[in-house]
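Practice problem: predict the structure.
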Amino acid sequence: MSLVNLTINGKAVSVPEGTKILEAAKQVNIKIPSLCNMKIEEIGFVDDCASCRVCMVTANRKLVPACGTMVREGMVVDTNTPEALRYRKNVVELLLSDHPQDCFTCDKCGICELQQLASEMNIREIRFKGEQSTFKPDISSVSIVKDTAKCVLCRRCETMCNKVQTVGALSGVNRGFNTVVGTFFDQDLIHTDCVFCGQCVSVCPTDALIERDNSKETWAALQQKEKPVIVQIAPAVRVSICEEFGLAPGTISTGKLISALKFLGFDYVFDTNFAADVTIMEEANEFVERLTKGGDLPILTSCCPSWVRFCETQYPELTKYLSTCKSPQGMFSSIARHYFADKVLDKKPDEVIVVSIMPCLSKKYEISRDELSKDGIMDTDISLSTREIARMIREAGIDLARMPESQFNSPLGNSTGAADIFGVTGGVLEAAIRTAYTDITKMELPFNGIDFVEVRGFKGIKEATLNIAGKDVRVAVASSLGHARTLMEELKADLDAGRPPKYQMIEIMACPGGCVSGGGQPFHHGDYEKVKARGAALYAIDSNKTIRKSHKNEDVKKLYEDFIGERGGHNAHTYLHTEYYDKSNPYTRKSDLKCDC
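Answer:
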C-alpha cells in the first residue's frame, strides 16, 4: 500500500493511503477532540459518520472534519487554528443547548464524553438559548433505559446494533431538528428485536443509553433483616471491577470484592463459578448424549441470554439445537434457593433473597423469564451489573483497592479453573470439552493437555477439530451476534440441503470477546486492550488452579449426591434445565411484557 506524506501542526507524517486525518494525527501523538468517532479494530466496529463536527481542523486552509477526511499528498493540517478552536467550541455549546442540564444527577456524571469535552474546552456557560428536544425515556425494558433527550446523534449505537450485532433494533429516523436514533415505528424497546446485550450502552458517549439501575432494591434488601441475602459473583466481574477504583485492567480483585460485599451487608457471598462447574456437568452430559445417541447436533451453548433471545427471535426453528441447560446465573440461583436455603439455612425457597452481580445487562432480562422460576418464585430476585455494584461500593465509602482479601462462603464458593474461563470467548466450549472427553473416553486429559488454544483469542469465529476416542469432533466459537448469524445461516443452509451439519458443538457469546466485554462492565471507551487484559486475567486464574476440570469439583459431586442425583436426571431437569420459545412475533412473546414501570 502506498504512503501519503503530509504535515500536521508542522510535524511530518507518512501514513497509508485511505487514512483519515484523525488517525494520522494519532501517529504523531496529536490529539484532536471527537465525539461520534470510535474505532475498535478487534471487533470490526468503525463509527466515522462525521455527524458531530467536534473534530473540525484546518486542512489546506479549509475547515474539514478530521474523522471523515482522508489525507492527501502534501496536505497541510493545523488542528489548533483560532477558526478551528472557535468552530469546535461552538459545536459543543450547541450540543449542550439541546441537552438536559442534569449533570450532577446523571448516571454518567464524571464519565460522560460530552461533559469531558465541555470541561476540556473551558465552556462555563451555555450561550445559545432556544427550543429543546423533549422525549419521554423508554423504560419498557428491565435491562436498558433509552433516554433520547440525551442523544447526541453520534450513531455509535446504531453502528453497533446493525453492523456488529446485526440485530437492527436501532436506526436514524426523521430529518433536521427532528432527527433521532430510534426504533421501528417508534416502538418501545421491549417490542423490538433488541436482545438487551448492552453493547449499544457500552459505546454510548452520554447517558442516552444506560442500564436499568437496581441498586435501590438491593439497598432495601440489605436493610431488612427477615430474609438472608445471598449474592453470587460472575467470573468476568472479578477482573474488571478494579477499573472502577483506579486499578489496572485485569487486576484480579476477587478477595477484595468479597470483603466489600460482606461490608455492604450481604449475608452469604458465593461464586457463580460453582454453578458454572455444575453447568459443565450438565452440558457435557447433554452433548455426549446427543453425540453418541443420535440427538440434535450441533449443540448450541445456552449461557448467554442475549444469544438465546437472538435465537428465539431470529432463528426460532433452530432453538431445538440449544442446550437446555440454564445459564450459571440461573443454575446458581435455583441451587441457592432450593438446596442451600433448605439444607443449610432451614429456610423455605421464598425466605431468602438471591442477588447476582453480572457483567451483562441481559441477565436482568433473563431473571424475568417465567421459565426461570418454580412454584411462582423467581430463581433470582435482583441482578446488578459490575457498574452498579461499583457505585454501591463507592456510595458506602469503601475503597476497593484498600480492602483486605476474603474467601467465598462454603459450599457454593468452591470452583475449578474451567469455571473461570466462562467469562471469555471460547471458555465455555473449552471447559465442556475437558469434561466431555472424560465422559466419552473414561480417561482424564493430562494436566498439561487441557488448554485448547485453538478456541482462544478474540477472533470473531474460531474453529477446531478435536479427536476424541478416534472420532473427529468439529467445534466452533462465535463472538458477537453478527458472527453468530454467519454460523446460523451456514447451519440453515446445511439443513436445507440435507447435509450433515459442519460442527458438533458451537459456543456463542453475544458480546464481542465474551462476558469480559459485557454491556454492564466498566466503560472501555474504545480501548479494547482493557478487554484483552480482563480475558488474560481469567486464563491466568485458570492456569494457576490445581483443579481445572469441572467434574473434579468435590463440592459439586456432593451436590449431586445430596440433591441433584443423576446427571441429566429428573431433579437436574427440574432445577438446572429450561425451555425456549418462538419469539419471532414481538407481541406474543412469553415473559417479555413483565416490566411494571
